[in-house]
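Lab notebook, bench 4. The sequencing result for the construct came back, and we need a structural model before the next group meeting so we can plan mutations. Quick request posted to the team channel:

Model the 3D structure of this chain.
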Amino acid sequence: MKTMKLKPGKSLVKTASLLILASSLLLSACGGGSGGTASGSGGGKDGGEPTSITIQTLNYATEFIDNTNPLWKELEKRTNTKLNITWLSPSTAEEKINVMLASGDLPEVTFVESMQNPQLQKMLKQGVFWDLTPFLKDYPSLNREELKEMWEITKVDGKNMVIPRYYPSYGGGVFPMIRKDWLDALGLETPKTLDEFYNVLKAFKEKDPNGNGQADEIPYAANPGALAYIYNIFNETQGGWKLEPDNTLSPIITSDASREAMLWIKKAYDDGLFPKDFAIMKFSQVMDTMRSAKAGVGGMSMNHAWVTGQPVKEVDPKADLMPLAYLENANGVKYTPSGSPYYGVYLIPKKVPEAKVKEILEFFDYGYSVEGNEMLTYGLEGVHYKVENGKKVATPQAAIDKTGDGNLNNMIHLVSDDMAISAVGMPDEVYQRNVEIVTERKTVKVPNPSAELYSEAYNKYYPEISKKVEDMRVMVITGKEPIEAYDQLIETIKNDPKMAEITEEMTKAYQEKYLK
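Done. Here's the predicted structure in token form:
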């Protein structure tokens, strides 16, 4: 049984193992219910029948738990709730959420991944959901200092219409995770620039870092979607927009820097640095390639130093997956992924009575309390873990009850960097290295001017425009179309009135949100 160890230096401790996607890749789960004391100290309402709450949410676990799970039962007991949770698989969640929003048949606690969802924006304007602002002052754990930024950034017209789900700003996102043991075997330093990174990938292909005498290494387990950060490095921005000196936004999809980024990827493709099926690989196939121990680099959040590193190590005991802190472009500008201090939001429809709204907020207050937060992540002391020398050590029951595997611990995330950089069983040396790396990442400030912005024109027109460009990029990268075809498409988009409308709306949204 692998151990789950408590690390010092945090108000909370090492997080449980969580899987994230791309993109985004990110980590999700479900929340809702009632009961819990407003003080966040635990316990449900005094007496009375349990409050039944219906919830739908994402679940990234390989096996979903239900209400027979002991930890689920304990959570219901402590909050005096009866939780009716519908888990959504990440592969179908977006479609199902959109269908649910369009139908108006909403659970009492409704999870939506993005505040920029067009249907959600319409429903917010129509007053479908509760304004929670008047109630929040009564829930101390929801007002924790660590949560203030997420509440502020998710306001809609100055009102708290959603319960944001905490997620640390640094440590997540798709960014290179490199086989340090391969670097060491070839006597290579950790790459800090794009040029150095490219040269490392070439060495992984040509110099037999696994030492088996065969040219069987895959330098970089990736598909086109896993390389979005390359475009951000070249454009020196997060997201799809860049802030210009005159406080207007410009789309990086049509920038010269993005053309250079595409050609960087094409050169890597031509040099055989990606899998043969690069253009058509699904995310699951990319991860399978990484777990096979044949790949030198993959794109993952920092906790995958162990979440994925452990299965790789089972194939190759020498394997050591290490996140990169940043990569620097030709201008000497560093890039590392960072994001908003939350991932996904919960909303309460107006059909829910006010008394029940308060009970739901009690539930979330307990979930964001230290006691509830740790229970959802680690389970119960004496059952799922024991404390030895100040460290939490998982018991066999932790695996049986699936603590920290992406189920209940995703409902309300651990309020700690550990949410993104740690995992159950992660060895001390891997964790401490992750702490050092995330600390270094925090020194790299990359602007994200389009964060939290909403544009109807963007949602109406941009997906089709973006798909055309993405498809063309793949065709150029794989040699099926010449660069001239790409240039012609980009010129057409630059002159497209739809793109002009999108840009105008995005600029207006930026100026109204950040310059007033």
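Residues 1-44 have pLDDT under 50 and may be disordered.
Will bring this to the meeting.
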